[in-house]
Design brief:
The complex is a heterodimer of chains A (115) and B (112). Helix content of chain A is 0%, strand content 49%. In chain A, the strands form two sheets. In chain A, strands 2, 4, 5, 6, 9, 10 and 11 form a seven-stranded mixed sheet that branches. In chain B, the strands form two sheets. In chain B, strands 2, 4, 5, 9, 10 and 11 form a six-stranded mixed sheet that branches. In chain B, strands 1-3-8-7-6 form a five-stranded antiparallel sheet, with no helix packed on it. Classes of the chains: A mainly beta (115), B mainly beta (112). Chains A and B meet through strand 5, strand 9 and strand 10 of A and strand 4, strand 5, strand 9 and strand 10 of B.
Chain lengths: 115, 112
């Protein structure tokens, strides 16, 4: 169990640029989640995959955000035309549907800073 | 609908003192409840979880929490704080939809 891996750990970009983050979940986990966390807040749900299917998206998720999990393994989260308000920590988590209550295992996140 | 309220954004204790972090939830059905810990620049780590059955749940690092349905609470405790316990703690509730709702977090400060 190598844990959930996220890359890059930090991303600094200018407003208006596109950014893409990657998440590699625990290998046997079929569920993958993306969250956004801002200072002083808990994680806010963005979207969730079961295998390669994106099953739920938050109503708060702007059209500028898109996520994929093409082969049911790693996932990418892309933000187009970044805005100042996108600055946050983006967390990925995975879980095994066979595990009772499916506690989520989190990566260390990607911290995005918009200049 | 589900929601979580963590009372107190900061809790300060002396090393060796009792730790009590408060969490109240709102749920229309029996919930699943979780406590997570987050150290600076890291992701969240599961401390403990409540499913069904025993209402007193023991977790890692000496933490435990008690589910009290009548009070809709799931407070986190530890008998004796260590310096290494200083971190951000999050309570979360799930109604089995696989997507938990997290509280705003409580920062635990431990003084020597």
């Amino acid at each position: 169990d190598t844990g959930v891996s996220q890359n890059p750990r930090h991303k600094i970009t200018k407003r208006g640029q596109n950014v893409t983050f990657r998440c590699d979940p625990i290998s046997e986990h079929n569920r993958l989640y993306w969250y956004r966390q801002t200072l002083g807040q808990g994680p806010e749900f963005l979207t969730y995959f079961q295998n390669e299917a994106q099953l739920e998206k938050s109503r708060l998720l702007s059209d500028r955000f898109s996520a994929e999990r093409p082969k049911g393994s790693f996932s990418t989260l892309e933000i187009q035309r970044t805005e100042q308000g996108d600055s946050a920590m983006y967390l990925c988590a995975s879980s095994d549907y066979r595990e009772i209550n499916q506690p989520q295992h989190f990566g260390d996140g990607t911290r995005l800073s918009i200049l | 609908a589900q929601s979580v309220t963590q009372l107190g954004s900061h809790v300060s204790v002396s090393e060796g003192a009792l730790v009590l972090l408060r969490c109240n939830y709102s749920s229309s059905v029996p919930p699943y409840l979780f406590w997570y810990v987050q150290y600076p620049n890291q992701g969240l780590q599961l401390l403990l979880k409540y499913t069904t059955g025993a209402t007193l749940v023991k977790g890692i690092n000496g933490f435990e929490a008690e589910f009290k349905k009548s009070e809709t609470s799931f407070h986190l405790t530890k008998p004796s704080a260590h310096m290494s316990d200083a971190a951000e703690y999050f309570c979360a509730v799930s109604l089995g939809s696989y997507i938990p709702t997290f509280g705003r977090g409580t920062s635990l400060i431990v003084h020597p």
